[in-house]
Specification:
The chain is of the alpha+beta class. Helix content is about 15%, strand content about 45%. The chain folds into 6 domains: about 120 residues, Macroglobulin (MG2) domain (Immunoglobulin-like, Sandwich), CATH 2.60.40.1930; about 80 residues, Sandwich (Immunoglobulin-like); about 180 residues, Jelly Rolls, CATH 2.60.120; about 100 residues, Immunoglobulin-like (Sandwich); about 70 residues, Immunoglobulin-like (Sandwich); about 70 residues, no CATH class. The strands form 9 sheets. It has a 16-stranded mixed β-sheet that branches. Strands 33, 34, 35, 36, 37, 38 and 39 form a 7-stranded antiparallel β-sheet that branches.
C-alpha cells in the first residue's frame, strides 16, 4: 500500500468516526457551500462556522463511492477566527453527481453539506449561412468547467478547443455536412459527460434541381445574376427559369414535386418551405407565360391548398392538393387540364374560390372560371404536344457582320482620323447563341465584349486598325454546339484602311550658296496605299544670285486619296563674297578683256580687305562700280549691272 492510498483510507476512517461522534456530541459546528449546485468543475465558496477556533478545520470532498480527500483548510481568505472558522474556494470535481463537502477538526467537530454537479444539456440548430451552405449551431449548458468538450460530426472531430467558462455554457457554429440525410452531433469530455443529437441536413438555398433539359434555358437568381441551365444544376428560392423557344426543362423539388416547363415558358419560385420530417411546407410560384405540367409531391398531400399556390399571369391563384395537371397561358385567359387530384381556382377580380376535382378542363381569367369534361386520352395528347423532346437543330446561328462604308471622296479608304473602324457581329439562333468568333487576315481585329450570350440574339462589338485591306469573317455557336454561319448569313466584310500620310521631302543640299553657284533642289511626293491626290511640291532651281542674299525657306504639302496630309520644308542661305562676285562678272560680261579688267579690280579690293585696309578696299570697289556703269547698254544689261552694283556695295567695309 503506497502513501497516497494510506492517506485516503485514514481520511475515510476519520469521516466515519467523526460522523459517529457527531450524533453523540451534538456540536454546533456547521459548513455551507455557495452555490449549492452548478456545472461540474464549479468553484464554490465553502464556509465553516461553530468550530473550536483553537484547532485547525479541514475540508474534504466525498461521494458514495469515491473520496476526493483533503481539498483545503482554515485559515482561509476570510472569517472572524480564521484558524477554525473561515471561507475558502474549492474547485468541485467535473463528473455529474452529488458531492459531500465535509469539514472537521482533530477534536471531532464535524459538519457536512452537499453540492450537486448538474447534468449537461445539448441543443443543435441546423441553419443556413449567408453563402447558402448548411451550418450547425451547437449550444451546451452546464458542461464541466475547465474541461474541453470536443464536438464531433458523424464521428469526426470538428471542434477541439471548446472549454466552457464558469457557467458551463458554450455556443459553437460548425460547417454542416456536405451530404443530405441523417447526421449526428456528439459532444463529450474527459470527465465522462457525453451527449448526442441527431439532425437532418437543412435545405440551404437549393429547393430542387434540373433533372432533364432539351434545347436551351436560362436561370436568373435573386441577386440578378444569370446563366444557362444544365442538367444537375440546383434550383434556389427566387430563381426565375426562362425556357428557350425550342426547349423543355424538368425540375424536381425536394418534396418530389415535378414541374415540366414547355418551350417559351417563364416561371419564378418565390417561396418554398419543406420539412422532410413531417412532409409539410408551403410553396408559391409565378408563371407569366408558356405552359407547364405539375405533378405534386409530398407537400401537396399533407398541406392545405392555401399553402401551395401558383400565381397564373396575375389573373388567378391556383391552390394545389395532391394533383396532376397542365396549365396553358393564352393572351386573355388560361387553361388547366386537371387529370387527378384537386385545385382551387381563385380569380383575382372576384371573391370566389371554386374547387375542382379531376379529370376536368378549367378555363379561367381574372373574372371567373368554367369547366368541361376531360378524358385521360385528351390529357395525354396535350402532354405529348407540349412536352415532347425539343426538335432537332443542326443549323448554326445566322450571323450578320456590319462595318460602315468609307466616306465619299476617299477612294474607299478610311484615313488616320477615322480609325479604329468600328463594327458589329450579330448572331441569332432559336437554340440560343453561346459564342461568337471573328477573324481578320491582317491581324488588326480587336473583338469587344459579347452581349446577349445564352439568349436567342447575341452581339459583339468589333474594331479594326492597321493599313491594308482587311477581310473579316465571323461565325457563332449555339447551345446545341452547332458552329459556323447559317446559309444566307452576311458574315464577311472588307474594310480598307490607309492611315499613313503620304511621303514628301526635299533633296539634300548645301546650307549656303555663293552668288555664283547654281541651286538645284528636288521636291518629291508619293503615297503607296491610296495614291497621291494633290501636292504643292516643286523643284527649286536657278542661280544663287537670282534668289538674292540671305535666308530662303520653301514649304510644300501633299494629300493622298484617303485624305491623309503631310508637309515638308527646306531652307538655304545665299551669301555675298569676292569669289561669288567674280563668278558673276565672268557670267555676265561678254567682253573677255573688260571682264579681266573688272576681275583684276576686284582682286585688288579683296587683297586690301584681307589686309584690313578698308579705305583702299572701298576705293577699289568704287572703281569697280565705275567700270560696271561704263558697260551698261554695251556688254552688260541694266539689270545685270544693278545686280553687280548691289552686291559690290554689300562688300564695302
Amino acid at each position: 500500500m503506497n502513501h497516497r492510498e494510506r492517506a485516503l483510507r485514514v481520511a475515510q476512517a476519520l469521516v466515519f468516526v467523526v460522523t459517529a461522534l457527531w450524533g453523540h456530541l451534538a456540536l454546533a459546528a456547521d459548513v455551507s457551500v455557495t452555490p449549492t449546485s452548478g456545472p461540474g468543475g464549479t468553484v464554490v465558496t465553502a464556509t465553516s462556522s461553530g468550530f473550536d477556533p483553537t484547532f485547525n478545520t479541514g475540508f474534504y470532498i466525498t461521494t458514495d463511492n469515491m473520496n476526493y480527500g483533503f481539498v483545503g483548510a482554515c485559515p482561509g481568505t476570510s472569517g472572524t477566527d480564521a484558524y477554525g472558522n473561515c471561507s475558502i474556494p474549492i474547485t468541485m470535481p467535473g463528473p455529474t453527481r452529488a458531492y459531500t463537502v465535509a469539514a472537521f477538526n482533530s477534536i471531532g467537530e464535524f459538519a457536512s453539506t452537499t453540492f450537486e454537479a448538474l447534468k449537461p444539456s445539448l441543443e443543435i440548430s441546423p441553419t443556413c449561412g449567408p453563402d447558402s451552405t448548411a451550418s450547425i449551431v451547437v449550444t451546451g449548458e452546464r458542461w464541466a468547467v475547465g474541461f474541453d468538450a470536443g464536438i464531433y460530426l458523424d464521428g469526426g472531430l470538428v471542434r477541439a478547443n471548446n472549454r466552457p467558462p464558469e457557467d458551463g455554457s458554450f455556443t459553437q457554429t460548425i460547417v454542416g455536412p456536405s451530404s443530405d440525410g441523417a447526421h449526428t452531433i456528439r459532444v463529450f469530455n474527459s470527465v465522462g459527460q457525453d451527449l448526442s443529437e441527431a439532425f437532418t441536413t437543412p435545405v440551404c438555398g437549393g429547393i430542387g434541381s434540373v433533372i432533364d433539359l432539351d434545347g436551351t434555358a436560362t436561370v436568373t437568381h435573386a441577386d440578378g445574376s444569370s446563366g444557362p441551365l444544365a442538367v444537375g444544376n440546383p434550383i434556389k428560392q427566387d430563381d426565375t427559369i426562362a425556357v428557350g423557344p425550342q426547349g423543355r426543362v424538368v425540375v424536381l423539388l425536394h418534396d418530389n414535386t415535378t414541374i415540366t416547363l414547355s418551350a417559351s415558358t417563364r416561371l419564378t419560385f418565390d417561396q418554398y418551405v419543406y420539412n422532410p420530417t413531417t412532409n409539410e411546407g408551403s410553396t408559391f410560384s409565378q408563371v407569366l407565360q408558356g405552359a407547364f405540367q405539375y405533378v405534386s409531391g409530398l407537400i401537396a398531400h399533407k398541406t392545405d391548398p392555401d399553402n401551395q399556390v401558383i400565381d397564373v399571369k396575375d389573373v388567378a391563384g391556383v391552390g394545389i392538393r395532391g394533383t396532376t395537371f397542365i396549365t396553358q397561358i393564352a393572351d386573355t385567359n388560361a387553361e388547366i387540364d386537371l387529370l387527378a387530384g384537386s385545385v382551387d381556382v381563385s380569380p383575382y377580380q372576384t371573391l370566389t374560390t371554386t374547387a375542382y376535382t379531376g379529370p376536368v378542363r378549367i378555363v379561367f381569367d381574372s373574372h371567373g372560371s368554367s369547366s368541361s369534361p376531360l378524358t385521360e386520352d385528351e390529357y395525354n395528347a396535350i402532354r405529348d404536344r407540349l412536352f415532347s423532346s425539343a426538335p432537332s437543330d443542326s443549323t448554326p446561328p445566322q450571323v450578320t457582320l456590319a462595318f460602315p462604308n468609307a466616306p465619299a471622296g476617299q477612294a474607299g479608304f478610311f484615313n488616320a482620323s477615322q480609325v479604329p473602324v468600328f463594327g458589329t457581329a450579330t448572331a441569332a439562333d432559336a437554340s440560343n447563341v453561346t459564342a461568337i468568333g471573328c477573324s481578320d487576315g491582317l491581324f488588326g481585329l480587336s473583338p469587344g465584349v459579347v452581349s446577349g450570350l445564352n439568349t436567342t440574339t447575341a452581339q459583339q462589338a468589333l474594331s479594326l486598325s492597321g493599313d491594308g485591306t482587311h477581310v473579316v469573317s465571323c461565325t457563332a455557336v449555339d447551345a446545341l454546339n452547332n458552329s459556323g454561319a447559317a446559309a444566307g448569313s452576311m458574315n464577311s466584310a472588307t474594310v480598307t484602311i490607309d492611315a499613313t500620310a503620304p511621303t514628301i521631302s526635299y533633296s539634300s543640299h548645301p546650307a549656303t550658296y555663293d552668288l555664283g553657284q547654281t541651286i538645284a533642289i528636288t521636291c518629291t511626293a508619293d503615297d503607296e496605299l491610296s495614291g497621291l491626290a494633290s501636292s504643292t511640291c516643286q523643284n527649286i532651281t536657278g542661280s544663287a544670285s537670282s534668289f538674292g542674299l540671305g535666308l530662303h525657306t520653301f514649304n510644300a504639302t501633299a494629300q493622298d486619296k484617303a485624305g491623309n496630309t503631310n508637309s515638308a520644308s527646306t531652307q538655304f542661305t545665299v551669301v555675298d563674297s569676292y569669289d561669288g562676285l567674280i563668278a558673276l562678272v565672268n557670267l555676265y560680261e561678254t567682253k573677255p578683256g573688260v571682264a579681266a579688267t573688272m576681275v583684276s579690280t576686284l582682286r585688288s579690293a579683296q587683297a586690301s580687305a584681307d589686309a584690313g585696309n578698308a579705305s583702299a578696299a572701298n576705293n577699289q570697289l568704287n572703281a569697280f562700280i565705275n567700270q560696271v556703269q561704263a558697260q551698261v547698254g554695251k556688254s552688260l544689261t541694266a539689270e545685270q549691272a544693278a545686280t553687280l552694283i548691289r552686291l559690290t556695295n554689300a562688300l564695302k567695309m
